[in-house]
């Protein structure tokens, strides 16, 4: 395993990248991005078996699909800092002519991204397709995906969840970012999800929880357990309990920063809580 | 005048099934997904021969489209099968984001298009699908005219990289194009030379256009007939070369006149060579229950309607 301190430093640096990206264009989604930073760092730095050269087909390596595409700032930062494209390119986030579109896309050929996302609810389906293709190719690797919790309100998810269990797609790990917030407020108030764990289990999935989704060690440990559950005839669901806006005190525990950028003063305050570790772009 | 003969009525969906069966044997990357309509789409033989490459997704079309997009990421060539209504309108956003915008090599195969679906009625008779699909950047849109052409098109789309919409139907229609024909995506087929009017048709209305041309010939009117199997990209040159000779044009399709072949043709003409045009198509209406023949008569989608439109457009020259 990589040095834990290095990974912790990367988490903080990614938080800075997220804040600086959205601040620069005064748009984007910092809240969910900050909440999933530890997950992305764990996934790309430790868990996934990845090839050095990006290939769209992704044969012979683990794959990741981001379903809740609005948290692109964390995705872009971790991809860049994992070698997929120059970290400098984060400067172009949401700018015209950029490969870093507001929501991720393959359209401009950004290495590391294999499907567009942003319109919610489609990621599990795409991941199932990729997982089934891996089985056909006798490619013994795992397909990971991340969905927002509010995103589960989209009906397509439940079509996919039913399919994956019914067809034993067991090379698939779907993580749900359970932060309890969506644009209009608490998920509980907008449209309650009920017991997500029981729902996945009732659909025939193996479910495990990571209670401390913003504790890097806990995420690493939980995701390794999830990995160990693959190949047993059931798809695997990870309930990742996170705090929206994690790492910036005034952004935490609220939906207010779901899709809002900090102003100059707020940025400074947020960055002061996350001092530079590995170098800003 | 060239004569065309019907070698025996066959459904175009069976042409798709035959093409898919052949692809199963010749292209190991081809996979098929179906949303509980295996028999209707004639996918049974593929399913029987290659159970490992056939995916029954249930009545869940959105998931099917997403899965198809995902399978391309493993290098597969997915063919999705369901009715045209559920292949397009129901899953427009899934096609838009996961397939078209993502540039995925998915073949959306749609049966039971248009009013000739018949007795099931308007809920299942989509007349807007060509428009929906042609508006998507990067989407190729194909509508075949008979069994042989549908089979050839199915083989051709597997070889062509990129998202494709392949539309065919349920009723048995005249099978008049050659067996084992070469199918060139984006290339119109000239069926009849003529000088007085151009008849441009797609789908099973191509046969109706040929019948109309014969009758017009008997009345001393020379009609040029062009089979447009690819709505997008449209063979602009074939259309423009023809109207230079004839000076007027009739478009014929089993689709709403808004958004279909006729509208694409009118854009080409408006930009390059403004020409009188008449539209044989449904007139911004939903369909209803009935036999295919009754519905084609009621909605003006047959040779008689084409003849009437041809005479009208000639008078407007």
TrEMBL record, chain A:
It comes from Marixanthomonas ophiurae. Belongs to the transketolase family. Its cofactor is thiamine diphosphate. This is Transketolase. The keyword Aminoacyl-tRNA synthetase does not apply. Pfam families: Transketolase_N. It comes from the Bacteria. Residues 13-269 form the Transketolase N-terminal domain. Keywords: Thiamine pyrophosphate.
TrEMBL record, chain B:
The keyword Ribosomal protein does not apply. CDD domains: TPP_PYR_DXS_TK_like (cd07033). SMART domains: Transket_pyr. InterPro entries: PDH/Transketolase, THDP-binding, Transketo_C/PFOR_II, Transketolase-like_Pyr-bd, Transketolase_C. It comes from the Bacteria. Gene3D superfamilies: 3.40.50.920, 3.40.50.970. Keywords: Thiamine pyrophosphate. Its cofactor is thiamine diphosphate. The keyword Mitochondrion does not apply. Residues 10-175 form the Transketolase-like pyrimidine-binding domain. Belongs to the transketolase family. This is Transketolase family protein.
């Amino acid at each position: 395993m990589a040095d834990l301190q290095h990974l912790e430093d990367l988490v903080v640096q990614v938080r800075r990248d997220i804040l600086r990206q959205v601040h620069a264009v005064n748009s984007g989604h910092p809240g969910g991005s900050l909440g999933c930073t530890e997950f992305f760092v764990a996934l790309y730095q430790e868990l996934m078996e990845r090839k050095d050269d990006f290939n769209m087909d992704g044969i012979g390596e683990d794959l990741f699909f981001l379903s809740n595409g609005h948290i692109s700032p964390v995705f872009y930062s971790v991809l860049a800092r994992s070698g997929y494209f120059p970290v400098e390119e984060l400067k172009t986030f949401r700018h015209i002519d950029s490969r870093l579109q507001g929501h991720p896309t393959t359209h401009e050929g950004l290495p590391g991204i294999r499907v567009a996302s942003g319109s919610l609810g489609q990621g599990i389906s795409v991941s199932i397709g990729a997982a089934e293709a891996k089985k056909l190719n006798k490619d013994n690797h795992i397909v990971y995906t991340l969905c927002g919790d509010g995103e589960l309100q989209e009906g397509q998810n439940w079509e996919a969840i039913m399919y994956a269990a019914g067809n034993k797609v067991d090379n698939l790990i779907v993580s749900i970012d359970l932060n309890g917030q969506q644009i209009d407020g608490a998920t509980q108030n907008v449209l309650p999800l009920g017991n997500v764990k029981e729902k996945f289990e009732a659909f025939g999935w193996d479910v495990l929880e990571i209670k401390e989704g913003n504790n890097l060690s806990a995420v690493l440990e939980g995701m390794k357990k999830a990995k160990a559950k693959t190949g047993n005839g059931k798809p695997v669901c990870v309930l990742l309990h996170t705090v929206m806006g994690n790492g910036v005190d005034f952004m935490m525990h609220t939906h207010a920063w779901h899709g809002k950028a900090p102003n100059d003063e707020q940025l400074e305050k947020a960055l002061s809580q996350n001092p530079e570790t590995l170098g800003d772009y | 005048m060239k004569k065309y003969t019907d070698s025996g009525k066959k459904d175009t969906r069976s042409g798709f099934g035959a093409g898919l069966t052949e692809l199963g044997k010749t292209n190991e990357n081809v996979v098929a997904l179906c949303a509980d309509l295996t028999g209707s789409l004639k996918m049974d033989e593929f399913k029987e021969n290659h159970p490992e490459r056939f995916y029954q997704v249930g009545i869940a079309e959105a998931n099917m489209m997403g899965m198809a997009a995902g399978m391309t990421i493993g290098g597969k060539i997915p063919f999705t099968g369901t009715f045209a209504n559920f292949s397009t309108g129901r899953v427009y956003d899934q096609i838009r984001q996961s397939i078209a915008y993502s540039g995925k090599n998915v073949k959306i195969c749609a049966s039971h298009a248009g009013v000739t679906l018949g007795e099931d009625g308007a809920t299942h008779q989509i007349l807007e699908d060509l428009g929906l699909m042609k508006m998507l950047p990067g989407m190729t849109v194909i509508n075949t005219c008979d069994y042989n052409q549908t089979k050839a098109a199915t083989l051709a789309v597997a070889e062509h990289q990129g998202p494709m919409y392949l539309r065919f139907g349920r009723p048995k229609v005249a099978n008049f194009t050659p067996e084992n024909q070469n199918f060139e995506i984006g290339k119109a087929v000239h069926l009849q030379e003529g000088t007085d009017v151009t008849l441009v048709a797609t789908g099973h209305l191509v046969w109706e256009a040929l019948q109309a041309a014969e009758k017009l010939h008997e009345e001393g009117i020379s009609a040029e007939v062009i089979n447009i199997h690819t709505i997008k990209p449209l063979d602009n040159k074939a259309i423009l070369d023809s109207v230079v000779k004839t000076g007027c044009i009739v478009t014929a399709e089993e689709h709403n006149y808004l958004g279909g072949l006729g509208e694409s043709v009118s854009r080409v003409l408006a930009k390059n060579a403004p020409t009188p045009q008449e539209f044989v198509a449904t007139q911004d209406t939903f369909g209803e229950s009935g036999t295919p023949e009754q519905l084609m008569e009621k909605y003006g989608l047959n040779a008689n309607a084409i003849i009437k439109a041809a005479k009208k457009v000639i008078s407007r020259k």
